[in-house]
What does this fold into?
Amino acid sequence: MATVKPFRAVRPGEGYAERVAALPYDVMNRQEAVCMASGNPYSFLHVSRAEIDVPSQVDQYSAEVYEKGKENLAAFISKGVMVREPKPVFYVYRQVMGGRAQTGIVGCVAVDEYEDGTIKKHELTRVEKEVDRINHFDVCNANTEPVFLTYREDKRIKSLTEGFIANHEAEYDFTLADGVRHVLWRIADDNVIGSISNLFREIPSLYIADGHHRSASAYKVGVKRRGQNPGYDGSEEFNFFMAVVFPDTDLKIYDYNRAVKDLNGNTAEGFIGKIRDIGLTVEEKGKEAYAPERKHVFGMFLDGSWYKLSVPEQLIPDDVIESLDVSLLQDKILGPLLGIKDPRTDKRIDFIGGIRGLSELEKRVGSDMKVAFAVHPVDIGDLLKVSDNGKIMPPKSTWFEPKLASGLFLHEL
It folds into this structure.
């Protein structure tokens, strides 16, 4: 059963939240981070991407960068830009984007439950990305950004959460330049805290929606601290890491589309013919962008026209991974017809988040790509099913929006 516990957060002081809040560290490159933090000395990017505050010739993974992040965080706390909670609390965190809200509980989850599979995964991680956040968390002595978790909705938790926010004022309520509204309520009542913790103990599993590298890094820092403290009793903060836990019914997964630089020696006509030869139905849709309306259907943009590609039922494998649309596209078209054997490493393919819209696919085909494919979004139920079966999703399968803001809360170790 799942552990979700309150913690003594460090969070923005009064009047600072909107200026501190930043996008997650991993959705931008170094130069973009410099631009985003420009003119804002309170941006949390000065902590999460501290390479923006050292000379450009300094490697972003150097010890100097991690020490700078630690120094900047300490300065934020000493100046009152960020403050420590006097006691362990929970928060309710609501994000509103395009009229849709997702509302979760901010708390800490257990390192042991990451290890034993109570917290389920669906992605592989890359060692170099893990090492970066391990060093960052370890030097800053904090989980500086939360992991994005989900669970199968429990109406009791939802009712308790909605009842609380209906009767309490928010600590923060602001809208950032990207149009996403962020609202945070503080739960300090011990009775409510106990009720939330007890209800989560009846939840059999938590699932990583977004933040596999942060999870792995937080886990490994916890293990490292255990090695440094052989007398630990399990109650120490390094035995836990910070997360926002949302019910699955609140979440939206966007499509994660593909574009390829060439047709692997085929003409456009020949390529379409080969798609038909493998059993897919091809229907030309013309100039108007086509978004797949259901599973096992793709949109394809080629030579200025959109096509609808349909996979017949008899070609869909009875397997939780192989039946995913991203797998069908890879196994039937990208691999055998376009020669993309390993989409993780092949330089001829690029991945485009659906939040950018189908116009981005047309733009890319008009510039550096030859063909693009629009994929129906993965269903949240499929993601949970993959995780329950201990399987790994294909690369670039899911795109969650909105992203969790960084800097609204952090967990000291």
Notes: The first strand starts at residue 9 and ends at 12.
